[in-house]
Specification:
Blueprint: H1 2-22, H2 28-52, E1 58-61, E2 77-80, H3 82-108, H4 128-131
Antiparallel strand pairs: 1-2
Helix pairs in contact: 1-2, 2-3
Length: about 140
């Protein structure tokens, strides 16, 4: 079950990299579906990790650097207890809910993506209040 702990971290990171790489090529709804699927998969992995961490910790040693002689290890590990797995599951649920809400919200608002606006060089539109100067109308001498 140590692989589940590593997948719970790797799946969202890899999905974010793939979504950024493919967003110029794919339509927006496909990228949104991919993000929602990755968030749902991460939620499932976190709940699987929560089910496994009954009363014991799940420990994953990366690179095979396990403690040997004298209980000394030089390496990186994951030590997941029930509280940590529960917090990860809660965060995964909140991220999935935020994605679902924002997807519907931006659909109703007319979209908010770099391709939907062309008023600035980066593709994002600036609000009129940010474009005006705050120095005043004229100076008196």
């Amino acid at each position: 079950m140590g692989g589940v702990a590593a997948l719970a971290v790797c799946v969202p990171l890899l999905a974010a990299a793939v979504a950024v790489a493919l967003s110029p090529v794919l339509p927006g709804y496909v990228v949104n579906l991919f993000g929602a699927a990755a968030a749902a998969a991460t939620t499932g992995l976190c709940f699987a990790l929560l089910a496994v961490t009954g009363h014991d910790r799940v420990i994953v040693w990366f690179g095979g650097w396990e403690p040997r002689h004298g209980n000394v290890a030089v390496g990186i590990d994951f030590a997941v207890d029930r509280f940590g797995a529960g917090m990860a599951a809660l965060v995964a649920i909140l991220v999935t809910a935020a994605l679902a809400y924002s997807w519907r919200y931006f659909e109703e608002a007319g979209g908010c993506s770099p391709r939907s606006s062309s008023s600035s060089s980066a593709g994002w539109s600036a609000s009129p209040s940010l474009a005006t100067s705050s120095t005043g109308s004229s100076s008196s001498s």
